Amino acid sequence: MTTPVLAAQLYTVRDFTKTAADLSATLRKVADIGYKAVQVSAIGPIPHEEVKTMVDDLGLTICNTHIGYDQLWNDIDAVIAQHKLWDCKHVAIGSMPGPYREGGEDAYKRFAVEASQVGEKLAAADLTFSYHNHSFEFVRFPHPTADNPNGSRTGLDIIYTESDPRYLQAEIDTYWVQHGGGDPVAWIQRLPNRMPVVHLKDMVVAYPPHERLG
Fold it and tell me: Which one, of 93, 86, 82, 79, lies nearest residue 63 by Cα?
C-alpha cells in the first residue's frame, strides 16, 4: 500500500505566492513547518523551471495542482509538459466553470463527458485527472427511479456517474461537502478507488450571535 502524502495547499496562502520572491519565502516557511509536499494552485506567473528549482532546493515535491479548465481544454500539451517538469502525476480542476454550473442538469452531464475526454488525454501521458468540488454541486435535480418515483440526485452525483471512472477521479473537499449539506465520510467511502487526493478542511460550527440586552 502506498503511504499517503500530507501536503500543504498553496491556495490557502495564495496572497503570498504572486511573485517569485514571495513564493520562495512562502515555500521555505511551509518546509520549515515540516511539510514535504505542496499542491500548487493560484500562484503568480512564475516560470515553471523556477518553481521546480525552488521546491527542489527545499526538498519539497509537488504532489498535485489545480489547473484552469480553459487551459486544460485548449492547451493540454503545455499542461502535460508542465507536470512532467515538476514530476507531478496528479492534475485537478479547482471548480466547474460558470456556464456548466449555471446550465442545469444537461450542463452537468456535458461537463462530465468533456472532463472525461480531458482525463483520457492526460492518462495517455501517465497523469491522473481529478475534480475538486465546492458546495454548489449539491444542487438537486429530479431523478425518478422504479423504487423512488420522486427521487433526486445532486450535481456531484451526476459528475461521477456520467463521467468515465477511468479518466475522472475525485478530489473530495470535506469542508465544501459539509457546507453543501453532504456527508464527507459517506462521499469518501463511496469513492474508495477513485480518490487519489482529498482536501481535509474543518467546517466550524457557528452559533447565532448573542444579542446585547439593555
Answer: 86
